[in-house]
């Protein structure tokens, strides 16, 4: 099975990105976690992206805050799909990171999720890997079904507790 990479610009992104790790783990997807920065360790970041496909990765999740160029820097150095996660780690509440991550020029795509959207980044990564992994696709279907069941249970509980008919 292809591995997922979770790359983040700083250890201060770890708490949010734990959501991506938990989600990949729940879906039984192997993943590597690295702190690599487009600005502070640009050579190591580029080297990771350049060798990722040969190392057996199928997708890269790149999380960064502020002037968030990490996802773009990854995309510039690999043909693997890159999922960008803008971090809410600044005085601008992540809007700076969102725009820096999402506004890629034509020809160099980054699939950008919501600010702090670590769980959706992992799910998107899982869906990408699942295209060539039928058992994972089936685990994703189970994940969706469990999510639906949870909402239905909440609906029943809330309707009973709050309705005044
Ligand atoms: C970005 O700058 C990181 O991804 C982090 O979100 C933000 C702040 O980093 P630290 O100053 O906390 O290391 O590169």
Associated small molecules = 5-O-phosphono-beta-D-ribofuranose
Strand order in space, largest sheet? 2-1-3-4-5
Mean pLDDT score, rounded? 98
Unreliable stretches covering 5 or more consecutive residues: none
CATH topology, anyone?
Rossmann fold
User: Any idea how many domains?
Assistant: 1
CATH architecture: 3-Layer(aba) Sandwich
Strand content: 15-25%
**Main sheet overview:** 5 strands, parallel
- What is the alpha-carbon Rg in Å? 17 Å
Helix share bin? 40-55%
Look at the structure and give the CATH class.
Answer: Alpha Beta
Distance between the termini: 53 Å
Structural class: alpha/beta
Count of β-strands: 5
Helix-strand pattern, N to C?
Answer: EHEHEHEHEHH
Q: What is the number of helical segments per DSSP (H or I, 4+ residues)?
A: 6
Shape: globular
Describe this structure in words.
Helix 4 links the parallel strand 4 (82-87) and strand 5 (111-112). The model has no long low-confidence stretch (mean pLDDT 98). The protein contains 6 helices and 5 strands; from the N terminus they run βαβαβαβαβαα. It has helices at 14-26, 42-52, 70-75, 95-102, 118-130, 134-162; strands at residues 3-8, 31-35, 57-65, 82-87, 111-112. It is α/β, with parallel strands linked by helices and 165 residues long. The N and C termini lie far apart (53 Å). The chain has a single domain, classed as Rossmann fold (3-Layer(aba) Sandwich), CATH 3.40.50. It has a 5-stranded parallel beta sheet. The structure holds 5-O-phosphono-beta-D-ribofuranose (RP5).
